[in-house]
Amino acid sequence: MFEVLTSEASYLRSLRVLKDHFLGSRELDDTLVIHDRKSLFSNILQVYEVSERFMQALLDRVDENVLISDICDIIHHHAEKYFSVYIDYVRNQVYQEKTYSRLMQCNRAFAVIMRRLEESPLCRRLPFTSFMLLPFQRITRIKILIQSILKRTMEDSHEESTASQALATVSEIIREANTQVGKMKQMEELMHIANLLEFDKLKAIPLVSKTRCLEKQGELQELSKAGSLFGFRFRFTPIYIFLFNDLLILTARKSSVSPERFVVLDHAHRSLVQVQGVEGGPAPQLEHAFSLTILENHQGNTCERLLKANTESDMHRWIAAFPSLTGTQEEQKEKVYEDWDCPQVQCICQYVAKQADELSLEPSDVINVIRKTNEGWYEGIRLSDRQRGWFPQETVAEVTNEHQRRRNLREQFRLAQAANHIVQR
Predict the structure, then answer these.
(1) Is the domain 2-194 a CATH 3.40.50.300 member?
(2) Is there a contact between 289 and 308 (Cβ–Cβ < 8 Å)?
(3) What is the pTM of this model?
């Protein structure tokens, strides 16, 4: 429990550097217009005030009794009443980073003064960007500390109840912050893709929507039969797919000169698309291939395309992105393990998801593996939040100790039960 207090004190000292040394710098302020200043520092003053108030409440509890019996009631109270400022700060972090990068590149006076400020002993050789990240790191750290406290409480005790309440409230704040960040990135991504697409021979469709998000994109090879005097052979044509939660767009790169421009070939509503694996048989060209059927395309027609992925894992991930009514014999025979009867791995190095169907991992994350591929990709479910996705094999190590594996499951089950109990009340 003392770690909550000591880490909050350290965090508050670092926030004070950001507030007084950077935000309070008159020289730096003279290089900024009002809009850039607001984007760069966001609501850091409100975040600082919330941390200061929280720190004082923790100190008051210590004054009552040095042997602290519980502080999760304080965390719960402050999280419920004041921690919403973290949602605003995290949501604006994308704009903070972009504003900072632009100013460092285009505003020489700003860059010179910023570097001089960073050289101060107050910064302890840390760059400005490290201070920018502090609030999100702190709210995440508080959640981890609460989980640690909860694991050490007696079941059905008052301490377990307050820890569960605090965990549920802080978890909701983090979830909402991540949701807000996701929505902002989602809109930016849609606008970027809309600028890349060309509807030369098709009627253009509005792409940007608050309810739309990109789920997967990538290049595949379309297979078609080309006749000759000696029979037929397969012809391969590159095709680039954009898959959204409600829409499928098939495109071709415009040219080698403009590889980032795409000409739209066809599009359809996501619900009108079916996929099915293809048995390779004697034809090596059909390895990693699957058929994609559009029940009704932009012209109202039904069409089928034979597509080929580069690897087996790519094929599995594309097929999984389009839940089909039927599958190949191989898929139907594939065993899907229950959570309590599958391999378990622990993250050993950070992994940042590059596609929507991937899972970002942090060291110490524990994941139940539900599928493995020959190319070194795993699909799994993270125990802490039940998020599902793909990740590279080299980022994890298998938990081979059965005692440790069972303990991981019991701890995560208890955390989930405690949080669910509070949510349902």
Answers:
(1) no
(2) yes
(3) 0.69
